[in-house]
Amino acid sequence: MLGVAALVIVLAVMGGFEASLRQRILSLTPQVEIQSYNGAISDYPAIEARANSLPGVAGSDPFIIGQGMASSAHGISGVIIRGVEPSSASVISKLRGYVQQGSLDVLGENHASSFAANMQPLDGAVALGATLAERLKIKTGDIISLVVPIIAGKGAQLTTKTGRFTLTAIFESGIAFVDRNLVFIGLASAQKFFGREGRVDGIEVRLSTLDQTDAVTAQLHAMLGKSYRVANWKEFDQAAAAGFEMLKRVYALVLLMLIGVAAFNLVATLIMVVMEKRKDVAVLRAMGATVADVRRVFVLNGLIVGGAGTAAGLLLGAGGCWLLAHYHFIHIEKKIYGISTLPVEAHPLTFAIVALASMMLCWIAALYPARQAARQMPVELFRS
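The structure assignment produced for this chain is given below.
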């Protein structure tokens, strides 16, 4: 019972951690991403229309991305700048849940006529993570400068371009890399700032369900041809996904061994039962019971005991998962994990697999005592 309950609860918590991390990562990174091997994409509206026509696709959004440097009056930091369409981008809609200060609604507004305190024109609005804002020592309403490398001129010379932006929103996603490095600006402002008017770096494709990831990726590969690169979240987050999967397997194996120890305690219990019931076995054999009948009785005995413990463990585990999900009495460090309480995600399939594994171990444990009971000879027993 305790082994089954522990295994169910640990697997539910590990599943909750994996789901929480995946949700936070996918809220700020593409589920499926289309990029061109030839550089920027100019006919992105047509590609969006073709991608949206595929089954399993919920929508698509163009984006611009580049590296640069952000500076304020009190600090400086290297950043990744991502230009998104505020009116339709799934990133923005999910990012709203992480906003601590300000608003994302003004990212798409035209700031060409806006001026800073020193009467210099502004290039747009930005949103950035709490860690980056703390490093730059700025708050909403402050002005930050972004410096990016630009390839321009007939000789394709590398130059730099500086823009001044208003900080309109600060978010905290719980993902250290995002909160420390990512800066969001409106797509129109990004196109103008990076000198890519009418062009984008790629298209983010949103899925109806993550189960459609492989199918949609394959369809986009076939539809767009070899000129475009199609990647999905499994490739982006492969290390994190593999790490969690390995942890779940290790924990499951360790706790399964705990169930195995409990299950093989049935061996001692059933051997004692066999010793107590020697005369009863002899009577049954004398009345015509076969070896298989006696063996079946003791195997059934072991399965009944194991089944009772397994059922009780599943109920105890379900109760533990419910308590963890509703009362949050276990707290963890939010700065490390991005969440303050243990996440729980219990699946019926997990309960079924644990129950099946537990009953298999109980069945194996019952085989040896049942075999020993069936080997008892009635004549020898009556003589003794």
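Interim note for the steering committee: The beta strands are 32-36, 57-71, 76-84, 99-102, 124-129, 143-152, 157-171, 182-186, 202-207, 228-232. Residues 2-15+240-383 form one domain.
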